[in-house]
Automatic annotation (TrEMBL):
GO terms for biological process: glutaminyl-tRNA aminoacylation. Residues 502-577 form the tRNA synthetases class I (E and Q) anti-codon binding domain. GO terms for cellular component: aminoacyl-tRNA synthetase multienzyme complex; cytosol. One of its GO terms (molecular function) is glutamine-tRNA ligase activity. The keyword ATP-binding applies. It comes from the Eukaryota. This is glutamine--tRNA ligase. Keywords: Aminoacyl-tRNA synthetase, ATP-binding, Ligase, Nucleotide-binding, Protein biosynthesis. Residues 1-81 form the Glutaminyl-tRNA synthetase class Ib non-specific RNA-binding domain. Its EC number is 6.1.1.18.
């Protein structure tokens, strides 16, 4: 095929000219205009700029009928006029998560898109829980979802539930049957799966019979799977007669035992949007196959019809975000819980130390394009934190004994919180006769290029204003003993004899636990059978977590609270873990300072 296309192009356009062969200069691409596969430009517009712009080509409130594919009925204009009276012409969106798991990085894009589009255009956004599947829903998920929305900086206009509208939805289901647009079916779930199931033999049953059977469903006279209510339509993907109601003998967390039939997403979603007068129903591309049923159902019931707009999902390499698979990781002990910092749920990212601004900025870098984006995790690894003098992570930090500083005033050192911007304040650290340094900052023999502490090679103590030089090396007894202590001289820095290097140090340190995280999976796509034939559980990285249990950290962090963030010099960004308790602090490494060359 390619050869034939090339020949046809050559025939139509002729051979390439010198101008065609000339190398074109690279154009820096603005973000938000088609990001896919993880490639991003260097000029990032803010999310608000992107959502306020004209690139989206969304309809204006009340102008739903101008959208391609929108179905206009004789009552459409009257319904839109009433809609504008209710909303005052305001943009209305909604974020509709299922409360059956913790939100992940993909949801962050959905939150930013829904809440952000409303905010950028002077509108409001509802947080609506799609609580139509009671057997998988738990209160902790409701709480965590709202907490994460607010953590990202958004306040819902109203918090609603699909279950708020169960009575109205049931009334409309009866009306749909009366209009001949729905029927009770007894085909099994297995029979109607896929895109070419056999037509239902009950599709043309009399309206009155379906009404009586639907009432029997509501009264619990059918077992689970024995009867469903189905709508009479064919969707874009060829799926015929989607289910509107099914029987579930599971108490609901809000309605108790009132219902034993529950509506499906295909039935519920557009009608809840209609009730709340949503102007723009934003969802990911996989729901495009539901657009026809969205428009069809509102028009079949003759109610206000919003417009569904689809955008590209955000996927991340080296991870899984499926709720079912995360549950497997938890149950097998591969991770501790939904907030394990090796995951990319929002609670896990918060625990690892990512600030919400970093996540929102990441979503802005991905852009509001409708193209699916698959991103490298390192593109998220951007955060800012106070740069406090660093911890000593080596399992065997070197202890250095030196003569006391020349003056008593030098027993406390002022260290800038942000070395590049001293206007942002200082903190005090003790400077006593015993200090600790990184094990890697000392060598008994000087190698070419090694500039840190060694016999005959003094170094400066960062921020202290002093230089130390080796006097004596103390080792564990026995041949080849391990170095455990250095005796050094300590002299005031002389600008004329500036040392080759400055190293970081701690004095009177706190002992803490530090958790160092790497990727949870070894391959980019752990769910892809071609990459990982044994399944994602066989692709776990055995070195995804390393715990340093006796690290030393500057005492200035003693008052830190869970989720407080620090940059330990030369080491990386760290966050205080909620496991911290009095007398024992725990830090999670958010990201290292020196990344792999491939992460440039």
């Amino acid at each position: 095929i390619k050869n034939e296309v090339d020949l046809q192009v050559l025939h139509l356009l002729g051979p390439k000219t010198e101008a065609d062969l000339e190398k074109k200069p690279k154009v820096r691409r603005r973000l938000g205009t088609g990001v896919g596969g993880g490639e991003v430009g260097t000029e990032t517009r803010s999310l608000m700029e992107q959502l306020r712009g004209e690139a989206l080509k969304f309809h204006k409130p009340g102008e739903n009928y101008k959208t391609e594919g929108y179905v206009v009925t004789p009552n459409t204009m009257a319904l839109l006029k009433h809609h504008l009276t209710v909303t005052g012409g305001q943009v209305r969106t909604r974020f509709p998560p299922e409360p059956n798991g913790i939100l992940h990085i993909g949801h962050a894009k959905a939150i930013n898109f829904n809440f952000g589009y409303a905010k950028a255009n002077g509108g409001v956004c509802f947080l609506r829980y799609d609580d139509t599947n009671p057997e998988k829903e738990e209160e902790k998920y409701f709480t965590a979802i709202r907490e994460m929305v607010e953590w990202l900086g958004y306040q819902p206009y109203a918090v609603t539930h699909a279950s708020d509208y169960f009575d109205q939805l049931y009334t409309w289901a009866l009306e749909l049957i009366r209009r001949g647009q729905a029927y009770v079916c007894h085909q099994k779930v297995e029979e109607i799966k896929g895109h070419n199931p056999p037509p239902s033999p009950w599709r043309d049953r009399p309206v009155e019979e379906s009404l009586l059977l639907f009432e029997d469903m509501r009264k619990g006279k059918f077992g689970e799977g024995e009867a469903t209510l189905r709508m009479k339509l064919v969707m874009e993907d060829g799926k015929m007669d989607p289910v509107a109601y099914r029987v579930k003998f599971t108490p609901h967390h809000r309605t108790g035992d009132k219902w034993c039939i529950y509506p499906t997403y295909d039935y519920t979603h557009c009608l809840c949007d209609s009730i709340e007068h949503i102007t723009h129903s934003l969802c990911t591309k996989e729901f495009q196959a539901r657009r026809s049923s969205y428009f069809w159902l509102c028009n079949a019931l003759d109610v206000y019809c919003p417009v569904q707009w689809e955008y590209g999902r955000l996927n991340l390499l080296y991870t899984v975000v499926s709720k079912r698979k995360i549950i497997q990781l938890v149950e097998t002990g591969a991770v501790r819980d939904w907030d394990d910092p090796r995951l990319f749920t929002l609670t896990a990212l918060r625990r690892r130390g990512f600030p919400p601004e970093a996540i929102n900025n990441f979503c802005a870098r991905v852009g509001v394009t409708v193209a699916q984006a698959t991103m490298e995790p390192h593109l998220l690894e951007a955060c800012a934190a106070p740069r406090f003098l660093g911890s000593v992570l080596g399992p065997s930090p070197q202890k250095g004994q030196h003569s006391p500083p020349p003056s008593p005033q030098a027993l406390e050192v002022l260290v800038p919180n942000f070395p590049a911007d001293e206007s942002r304040g200082f903190h005090k650290v003790p400077f006593q006769s015993t200090v600790y340094i990184e094990e890697t900052d000392f060598r008994e023999e000087v190698d070419k290029g090694y500039k840190r502490l060694a016999p005959g090679q003094p170094v400066g103590l960062r921020h202290a204003g002093y230089v130390i030089a080796i006097q004596n090396v103390i080792k564990v007894r026995g041949s080849g003993g391990h170095v455990i202590e250095l005796e050094v001289t300590c002299t005031k820095s002389d600008v004329a004899e500036k040392p080759k290097a400055f190293i970081h140090w701690v004095s009177e340190p706190l002992v803490c636990e530090v958790r160092l995280y790497e990727r949870l999976f070894l391959h980019k796509n752990p769910e892809d059978p071609s990459e990982v034939p044994g399944g994602f559980l066989s692709d776990l990285n055995p070195d995804s977590l390393r715990v340093v249990r006796s690290a030393l950290v500057d005492s200035s962090v003693l008052s830190a609270r869970p989720f407080d963030k620090f940059q330990f010099e030369r080491l990386g960004y760290f966050s205080v873990d909620p496991d911290s308790e009095e007398g024992k602090m725990v830090f999670n490494r958010t990201v290292t300072l020196k990344e792999d060359p491939g992460k440039a």
